[in-house]
Write a structure and sequence with these properties.
7 helices, about 55% helix
């Protein structure tokens, strides 16, 4: 719906009158005076309900990555590193721990358990 003219308060009220279900519950719980303008209301709506919104990965997501049967160690490490690059914080110890946890049983895995690597370059060696 396109609303021409009117104050921000009227535009926000008209927009909120179109909400139902989860959207209505979310916006009904917002304290009075929190939304200061129609662009602010619009931005809040878009941030909450954009379809196909991709959330940035979290550190715990690394522990869900596993080496597939037949996948090379290099391929597995590349996938893990690609995810770790997009993390908001870089905790190399956790990336190495996730790598060790996700690799399939192999002599390389056993050697990593006996001689733990502390950095990704050590893992690559």
């Amino acid at each position: 719906m396109i609303i021409f003219g009117g104050s921000d308060a009227i535009r926000c009220k008209m927009l909120m009158d179109t909400f139902t279900g989860k959207t209505l519950q979310l916006f009904s719980g917002i304290p009075d005076g929190h939304i200061t303008s129609f662009p602010h209301c619009s931005r809040m709506f878009k941030e909450q309900f954009l379809p196909n919104k991709v959330n940035p990965p979290r550190l715990c997501d690394l522990f869900n990555v596993r080496q597939s049967k037949g996948e090379s160690l290099k391929g597995y490490l590349d996938i893990l590193c690609a995810i770790s690059v997009r993390l908001r914080t870089q905790d190399e110890d956790m990336v190495v721990a996730a790598f060790v946890q996700g690799i399939t049983a192999s002599p390389f895995n056993d050697s990593l358990i006996r001689n733990p690597a502390e950095t990704l370059p050590e893992v690559r060696e």
